[in-house]
From TrEMBL:
PANTHER family: PROLINE-RICH ANTIGEN HOMOLOG, PROLINE-RICH ANTIGEN HOMOLOG-RELATED
Name used for this protein in its record: RDD family protein
Sequence intervals crossing the membrane: 49-67, 79-99
Main location: membrane
Keyword Isomerase: no
Lineage top rank: taxon: Bacteria
Organism: Streptomyces sp. SID12501
Cell compartment(s), UniProt: Cell membrane
Length: 155
């Protein structure tokens, strides 16, 4: 193996190097029994982040417009609390937030399909710790989804 191949495999990451060696990882969600594309498939990170941005913006508008007239107070105190309430209430009842609905996403439990209030609470608390959503498995699920045994899918 020459230096270009060594550097190329290092730059492309361990997954690309393993795939070049013949390892088949499959597609996202295959281990969970989900389809590769279309409804029921694993939600892509871009849609998930965009949905979160919409939900956060909505919470900022509510905090700034209805509760306080100071943007700093709205952003630091009230918007996170409103987001916490939004996630707890909508995920445990509907399975999606307004942002997720706008982008065609839904949170489902792996075994029952419906997210119970306890699972929604666990997922939300872990989400607010900030680190669990940043640690992903090979299916693209965050640690908060893995521990709550949920998955975010397209609808």
């Amino acid at each position: 193996m020459d230096n270009r191949q060594v550097i190329g495999s290092w730059l492309s990451g361990p997954r690309a190097a393993a795939e070049e060696a013949g390892v088949d990882f499959g597609y996202r969600g295959e281990q969970l029994g989900l389809p590769k594309e279309g409804p029921g498939s694993i939600a892509r990170p871009g849609r998930r982040i965009a949905a979160l941005a919409v939900d956060w913006g909505l919470c900022l508008l509510i905090a700034y417009g209805l509760i306080t007239d100071s943007y700093n107070e709205a952003a630091q105190i009230w918007a996170p609390l409103i987001l916490l309430a939004l996630l707890l209430l909508t995920l445990s009842t509907l399975g999606y937030t307004p942002g997720k609905r706008l982008f065609g996403l839904r949170v489902v439990a792996l075994d029952t399909g419906r997210v119970s209030p306890l699972r929604a609470a666990l997922r939300t608390v872990l989400f607010f710790l900030a680190l669990p959503p940043l640690v992903w498995d090979r299916d693209g699920r965050g640690l908060h989804d893995r521990l709550a045994r949920t998955v975010e899918v397209r609808i």
